[in-house]
Design a protein that fits this description.
Blueprint (H helix, E strand, L loop, with lengths): L2 E8 L3 H12 L5 E3 L19 E2 L9 E2 H14 L3 E3 L5 E3 L5 E4 L10 E8 L3 E3 L7 H4 L4 E2 L2 H4 L7 E5 L3 H10 L5 E5 L9 H8 L4 E4 L2 E7 L6 E6 L5 E4 L3 E4 L3 E3 L29 E3 L11 H22 L2
Parallel strand pairs: 1-2, 1-8, 2-5, 8-19, 10-17, 11-12, 11-17, 12-13
Antiparallel strand pairs: 3-4, 6-7, 7-8, 9-18, 14-15, 15-16
Helix pairs in contact: 1-2, 1-7, 5-6
Bound molecules: NADP nicotinamide-adenine-dinucleotide phosphate.
NADP nicotinamide-adenine-dinucleotide phosphate binds next to α5.
Length: 319
């Protein structure tokens, strides 16, 4: 039988759970569809579940870990009455409020939920190389976020994979800490904008390995090197590094909203004022609508914005 709720939140990273804390404290009794694990790199709680040390989330002077932070946010949301369901949103119908949301069989005529307002916080997944051991080494030498983890690599030799703006930005940022940054790119030309390319070329700490792909990760429990294959000669060589930053793009989780919400050319939900999307009553927060900042704290902040926007929108409707 279809359940009705005032606010349904899809996603349980820092954006979704912060939205849940605010919405539940506003007595909107939100339901959070937290997702369900389909692999080690895809589990409820979002990207932070793959992050070990977090030293830049305000309020934790001695640092914390991603899973601890997400567990605390979850408990805090539940304390105020948010109901959390371990399931995945399979289909939505946003033609009019109350919006229809299916979490089980998307083919059944009756939706699982009807909600007056919907907050989309489904996040974005960092693309990985797909190498054996990669998931296990995340947080132990392999990273997808220089802002988060660069500090841990002071005076070390590290590598960045990718040739786009993100890879160059990460490589440049990492030169503040590392002795040397090797940029590993699969072609002989960077995809990054000219200005970023010039910055990389003129930085003495950055060496570029052209026409190269990472084929193996070395290290038992902690990365201590990578195997690189030259795509022109097919020759393999080892590079001794303690960190590997994979910056080959992100995939926002917006497939189920295609054709119903405005989505930009990179796949992210377009938000206008605050967290408003192209559909009245649907709000988006966190990485699913942010390809610039992508931080736990900015996601949490935008979750707060989305909950307040939803609350105001419902109040104007008289709900
Ligand atoms: P991107 O532009 O799609 O670049 C991804 C890079 O990773 C490409 O160089 C690609 O190689 C490489 N790559 C993809 N799959 C790979 C694989 N399996 N193995 C090895 N290499 C792989 O992604 P992005 O850099 O994250 O940027 C996304 C968007 O955000 C872009 O529009 C970008 O301009 C923008 N952005 C802007 C800034 C800025 O202006 N400061 C900063 C960050 C991002 P190929 O080149 O061979 O395809």
């Amino acid at each position: 039988m279809t359940q009705h709720c005032k606010v349904l939140i899809a996603g349980s990273g820092p954006a979704g759970l912060t939205a849940a804390i605010y919405a539940s404290r506003a007595e909107l009794a939100p339901i959070v569809i937290e997702g369900e694990p389909s692999s080690t790199s895809d589990q409820p709680g979002g990207q932070l579940m793959l992050t070990t040390e977090i030293e830049n989330f305000p309020g934790f002077p001695s640092g914390t870990t991603g899973p601890e932070l997400m567990a605390s946010m979850r408990v805090q949301a539940e304390r105020f009455g948010a109901r959390i369901s371990t399931a995945k949103v399979q289909r939505v119908d946003l033609a009019s409020s109350p919006f229809k949301v299916w979490v089980q069989d998307p083919e059944t005529p009756e939706p699982t939920y009807r909600c007056d307002a919907l907050i989309v916080a489904t996040g974005a997944r960092s693309l990985l190389l797909g190498l054996p051991g990669e998931n296990e080494l995340i947080g132990h030498g392999v990273s997808t976020c220089a802002t988060c983890d660069g500090f841990f690599f002071k005076n070390q030799q590290i590598a960045v994979v990718g040739g786009g703006d993100s890879a160059i930005e990460e490589a440049l940022f990492l030169t503040r800490f590392a002795d040397k940054v090797t940029l590993i790119h699969r072609r002989d030309k960077l995809r990054a904008s000219r200005i970023m390319q010039e910055r990389a070329f003129s930085n003495k700490k950055i060496e570029i390995r052209w026409n190269s792909v990472v084929t193996r990760l070395h290290g038992d429990g902690r990365l201590d090197g990578v195997e690189i294959c030259d795509t022109l000669t097919d020759e393999s060589s080892d590079l001794s590094v303690t960190g590997l930053f994979v910056a080959i793009g992100h995939q926002p989780a917006t497939e189920i909203f295609a054709g119903q919400l405005d989505i930009d050319e990179l796949g992210y939900i377009v938000t206008g004022s605050g967290s408003r999307t192209s559909v009245d009553g649907v709000f988006a927060c966190g990485d699913v609508q942010d390809h610039v900042y992508r931080q736990a704290i900015t996601a949490a902040g935008s979750g707060c914005v989305a909950a307040i926007d939803a609350e105001h929108w419902l109040a104007n409707l008289g709900s």
